[in-house]
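Sample pair:
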Amino acid sequence: MNKQLKIGDLTAKLPIIQGGMGVGVSRSSLAGAVAKEGGVGIISTAQIGYDEEGFEKDQAACNNRAIHKHIKRAKELAQGNGLVGVNIMVALKHYAEHVKEAVAAGADVIISGAGLPMNLPELVSETCRTKIAPIVSSKRAAQLILKMWAHKYDRTADFLVVEGPKAGGHLGFSREQLDEIDTMDYDEEIRQIIACKEEYEKRYEKKIPVIVAGGIFDRADIDHALELGADGVQIASRFVATEECDASEAYKQAYINAKEEDVQIIQSPVGMPGRALRNALIERVEKEKEPIKKCYNCLAKCNPGKVPYCITKALIDAVKGDVENGLVFCGSNVGRINQMMSVHELMQELVS
């Protein structure tokens, strides 16, 4: 593949971003390996310090420390290749601190979703090296964030991540929209988002690359996105079944063993629909609320007395290997993943 991804003055040899996956699924091992291959490796900051000493007592300090550690380590593993960035959920209670820590640690890019990152430009100086991107799922959301950033900060996005309805994790669609996924013409939505950002490219005299995400599985999907006018793609689920992925072997095996019918749309405690593998946890919480013994103060808006289960505990249990009693987010194409490979092998497959 003879196509680079240019984001301002930063360049990745390949137009492939590895999507951020938390808790602990995409940290420095995976992100560093992807960057080493010339892509953009993304670390999820969501409870990134879950295995740091003292996490049970002080999650905020452990997460801040781990953000620094994993960005630095990923860059070392990349050996000067590709780019290393972070995905930071708007829904996090310590969102602003995570952004500041990532900038201080030298993250090349910050991608922000699970809500619109209205104040992200306030937290990342335009003069610093770190590039910023909101995740949007509709023309309406793209117009809203671009207009708001221009009005309030006289600034625009460095790039846009357009996440479609086939993505894993938290989704920017209603349950009703996700039920109609087979009849949805999302290609037209992508074209409209690409068209709506052109106004801001002219105003700020800069290119705003568009990255298409959600359901990207192989080279044919990449080519299709590029034909629509995208500048690159973001792929997440396929990187789980790699040797370098930071999740446990049991978590990776759950992906390899998964069938299409195992995938379910759930309602996350974050307040958004999400796509995950059906397991014992999901079956239990469909019937009754899971007792919450400890609050990890992870979300800005969360009432432990009302949510069906603790998302931090569920995601940590899963990434450590308890894939029946933890929460295993996944993309719609997880049933097509049937073998373990190295990041090098996967990247070669995607671009050859």
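Residues 333 and 343 are 18 Å apart (CA to CA).
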